[in-house]
């Protein structure tokens, strides 16, 4: 096994570590990486990307964009060039999106306006995830899909026509919003998307950077986005900041391992993505930001975490959209806090790469934590000190379940082992190497 890419048939074990120290950079933000490739493929001319996440999910999107007619080239570490042809062309084969829900849902929206038959598929995990949440609003706008049960494999049909209309948010999902906006971009008429709960706004920001016009208004306390069809995108330069969802793992590890102090540089600090940092501060975490600045239209900064006691909190359900991917690592941190941490309104976690609510509850319980699973949440009653550990945790190939339990193992009394760590490469291919560079004891089981 290399430091960066544990294979799928290996296990990894984390053992109680000495103080974690040092500076690191999180891999490029996954959400922004997907969008940079897709918009580069839809644009006319050259898009140059710096800091692209080179994880399996994003690489699947790069291959998809190429299959739709763009020329995509890797120039160096995180440096990519996309030569767009002003739209998507008929692919010659099935678009395999691997394990990426973001990739397939955004690509479905981007492909819907074009007179092409595009077949989409993915791995067993992605085939189990619901696509109706995208199929329904796109069909409402005139797209046509062929699918047995609202899941992959499916086909976006050439005879669909995206026309104007209004789509109202039914659940907070930036993937749905993005699919609708990308469809409207190359449709006819005007598409409006209305959301009650703000979701991550990377698509809106990046569309504007590529030259699109998107109007945004408040109507009766609801945010409405308006995009007219037939707009022309021009290639752009994109700098991808560090992913806060990935930065969370070394930062939380520093909060839990006595004597630790870790800085993660160039972290995306978009306020629609920083719910975890806000929650950790409410728990008493020693988190600080230095060198706050703007890069590529997004706020970034260097985040430092220092070891210290944590206290349980109740996380407001309306914060879920800004930290939905971070609840597994928050649950791990909560096991060490004093008192009860209540996480509700997170039913979305049951239809991620795995049922993350169930797997976190099982894994934490196996490690000796006091945890209660609810239909749409978790309640963790923290120990106020070290957690026992000493378990082999089933991950079902979910990268965030694996990394969260490995972080827990670094501060637990006994080692924690996770199965199927190869899937960590979907979002954080350098996780093991980065954690070891800070002093973490993570080794093959």
Question: How is this structure best described in words?
Answer:
The protein is of the alpha/beta class and 445 residues long. It folds into two domains: 12-28 and 241-444, UDP-n-acetylglucosamine1-carboxyvinyl-transferase, Chain (Alpha-beta prism), CATH 3.65.10; 30-239, Enolpyruvate transferase domain (UDP-n-acetylglucosamine1-carboxyvinyl-transferase, Chain, Alpha-beta prism), CATH 3.65.10. It is 29% helix and 28% strand. It is built from 13 helices and 24 strands. It has helices at residues 30-42, 56-67, 101-111, 124-127, 132-140, 174-185, 202-209, 244-256, 275-282, 327-334, 356-366, 399-411, 431-437; strands at 12-15, 21-25, 44-50, 71-76, 79-85, 95-96, 118-121, 145-147, 154-156, 165-168, 190-195, 214-219, 222-228, 237-239, 261-268, 286-295, 298-306, 314-315, 338-344, 370-374, 377-383, 392-393, 416-418, 441-444. The strands form six sheets. It has a four-stranded mixed β-sheet with strand order 22-23-1-24. The protein has a four-stranded mixed β-sheet with strand order 2-15-17-16. A hairpin with a 2-residue loop joins strand 20 (370-374) and strand 21. Helix 3 packs parallel to helix 6, helix 8 (244-256) runs parallel beside helix 12 and helix 10 (327-334) packs parallel to helix 12 (399-411). The longest helix has 13 residues, at 30-42. The radius of gyration is 21 Å and the shape is globular.
